[in-house]
Amino acid sequence: MFHFKQFSIEHDRCAMKIGTDAVLLGAWCPIDNKPSSVLDIGAGTGILSLMLAQRTSAEHTSLEGELAKQIDALEIDENAYEQCVENFEASPWSDRLFCYHAGLDEFVDDPEQEYDLIISNPPFHSENYKTDDESRDAARFQDALPFEELVEAADLLLSENGIFAVIIPFKEEERFIDLCAEVELFPIKVTRVKGSHTTPIVRSLLAFKRYELSVLQADELVIEINRHEYTDDYITLTSDFYLKM
C-alpha cells in the first residue's frame, strides 16, 4: 500500500505501480477553469482521480462546496479496474468517484456528457519489444491507447471551456501537440521535466484548451538536486500529497 497525506492506494494488482509521472500530473494539472466534471482515461490505480478529488474538495479550495462533483475514471484491465474501485471506496471522496470498466472506444461510442477536465497518463512505450505480461504491456505500450485515439476522444468529450492534460515523453511532445492542433486543441501550459539539473528533459506535462494563446509560456521542472534531495519547485508542487514533503 502507498500512503499519501489524505488517502492510500493499493496497487499490487495493477500492472503499473504508483510512479512519479502520475503524481506530477495530478499535482500539476490546471484546475483554474473550476471543473465540475472530470474524466480520468486509463485510470490504473485511480491515483489521478483521487488527487483531483483532493484538489477540488471544499477543504482544499476554501470555496463553498466542492468543485468537481463528478469524477469518472475509465479502466479496461479487469484487475486494475477492481483495485481502482476499491481505492475509490476507501477514500474520503467515494461519493464523487466512479470507475467504468470499459475501453475508450466503447466509452466514446455513446457519450452521455462532456467533461470540464480530461486527464490521462497514457501508455507511451512505442518500441517494438513486449514481455510475457499482457496486462503490463497494455499499460505500458502505446498500441493499447494510441495518442490519436486519445486526442480524438478528448475532442469529442471536452466541454467548451474544458482542459485536457497529459504527461508524455519529451520526444513525443511535438507530435502530440500537432495531433491536438488537428482537432483545434491548443497548448495553454507546458512544463518539461528533468530528473536533475545535469540530466536531459525526459517528460512533458501538457495542458490544452479549445483556443490558441498568442504567447505560450513554457517552463522546466527539475525533480532532484542530488539523490533523494528534492528541489524547492518539486517540493512545492507535491507537498500536499507526499507524506515526507
Structural class: alpha/beta
Uncertain stretches of 5 or more adjacent residues = 126-131, 136-142
Number of helices: 9
Overall morphology: globular
**Order of H and E elements:** EEHEHHEHEHEHHEHEEEEH
Count of strand segments: 11
What fraction of the residues are assigned to beta strands by DSSP? 25-35%
Largest sheet, if any?
9 strands, mixed
Question: Which strand order spans the largest sheet, edge to edge or round the barrel?
Answer: 5-4-3-6-7-9-8-10-11
The average pLDDT value, as a whole number, equals 89
End-to-end separation in angstroms reads: 18 Å
Q: What portion of residues is helical? A: 25-40%
Oligomerization state: single chain
Radius of gyration, whole Å: 17 Å
Ordered list of secondary-structure elements with their pairings:
Elements: E1 2-3, E2 8-9, H1 20-28, E3 37-41, H2 47-55, H3 58-61, E4 70-75, H4 78-89, E5 97-101, H5 104-109, E6 115-120, H6 134-140, H7 147-157, E7 158-169, H8 173-182, E8 186-196, E9 201-209, E10 218-226, E11 229-230, H9 232-238
Parallel strand pairs: 3-4, 3-6, 4-5, 6-7, 8-10
Antiparallel strand pairs: 1-2, 7-9, 8-9, 10-11
Helix pairs in contact: 1-2
